[in-house]
Amino acid sequence: MKKMMVYLPDEVHEGLRRLAFEHRTSIAELIRRAVDAAYGEILEDIRDAEAELASYRADPSSAISLEDFLAKLESRVPRRARVPRPART
């Protein structure tokens, strides 16, 4: 874990202080949870992309063509059923 300094407006700090007291936790823990809730999935996607890139760099022959990728993707993702729209009058 890395330590960092963040400047917050007084009213935000006071709100976090009260919330931390009510939940018997620290302001830092509240901020970690908020960052994870807001950006956790994006950060996970970045880690996955970096791992895929490292795998490709180690063995470029493992790559597939864009057409093959799109075909594989389409076979995994179910199509949404089209709902007919009412006719305009």
Shape call: flat
Mind describing the biggest β-sheet? none
- Residue stretches low in confidence (pLDDT < 50, at least 5 long) are none
Helix content: 55-70%
Total helices: the number is 3
Average per-residue pLDDT, rounded, comes to 89
Number of strands: 0
- Write down the domain tally: 1
What structural class do the secondary elements suggest? mainly alpha
First-to-last CA distance: 62 Å
Structural description of this entry:
The chain has three helices and no strands. The chain is mostly helical. It has one domain. The radius of gyration is 23 Å and the shape is flat.
Topology:
Elements: H1 10-22, H2 27-58, H3 66-76
Considering the chains and any ligands shown, give keywords for the structure.
89 residues; mainly alpha; 3 helices
Question: What would a concise description of this structure say?
Answer:
The protein is mainly α. 63% of the residues lie in helices and 0% in strands.
